[in-house]
Amino acid sequence: MKTDKKKKLEILFIDDIRSLHNNLLSDKSNHYLQNMLFNLRLLFRYNNRDLDDLIDFYYYVEDILNNKILLDFDELKILIYRVTDLVVNLDDYDVRGNTLITESCSSLLQSLYLELETYRLADKTSESSAWKNILVNQLKNQVVDFELLIRILELSNDDDVKGIVLEILENNYPFEFATYKARNGILIV
User: Fold this and answer.
1) Is 76 within 8 Å of 119 (Cβ atoms)?
2) What is the pLDDT of residues 98-137, one digit of tens each?
3) What band does 75 get if pLDDT is binned at 50, 70 and 90?
4) Closest by alpha carbon to 28, among 186, 178, 176?
5) What pTM does this model have?
6) Which one, 16, 44, 136, 144, has least CB within 10 Å?
7) pLDDT per residue over 133-154, tens digit each?
8) Inter-residue contact 114 to 142 (CB < 8 Å)
9) Residue 182 class from Cβ within 10 Å (0-12 exposed, 13-18 middle, 19+ buried)?
10) Low-confidence winner among 13-22, 27-36, 89-98, 140-149 (lowest mean pLDDT)
11) What is the dihedral of CA 176, 179, 184, 189, to 10 degrees?
């Protein structure tokens, strides 16, 4: 199945990705969806065949971030299914850079499962319940751990604190941290 979408996807100018934000998802899930789009752009740049399903997935994620698709409970389950399906069947695509997508999917799925559980808990509370508002606020206020660690790294003057943060970043966010260092001109930290 060929797709008729022909949007040019530049990887160097990602302001269009960074400006996308789904109103129903937490900042953490939005971050990982944006990260998925960026990594798919990298994949598209270095591959040129067997990409139709991946291109369709790219536009699906973009539509979710643009709020063109209502991300209710059922649609969230479909998104989780599609991300999982992508990981499971990634070897079927003849593309280079599978690791980029696998790592993105891992972080995204973790965040989406938390969203799913929060949706379930919110549905179990009554409309008048104070717990529903607390759960919805919890959902919206999830923080992006990576961004907090980068802020600690940048603000800290203590070498011990920097060493611990660097260890966490390098062990738990290897690709994101490598991308951060590349984008900020840092070859050795």
Assistant:
1) yes
2) 888 888 898 899 889 888 887 777 666 656 566 666 666 6
3) very high
4) 176
5) 0.71
6) 16
7) 666 666 566 666 777 778 888 8
8) yes
9) exposed
10) 140-149
11) 70
Token pair, residue 118, equals 């929060």
Q: Which two tokens stand for residue 56?
A: 């369709």
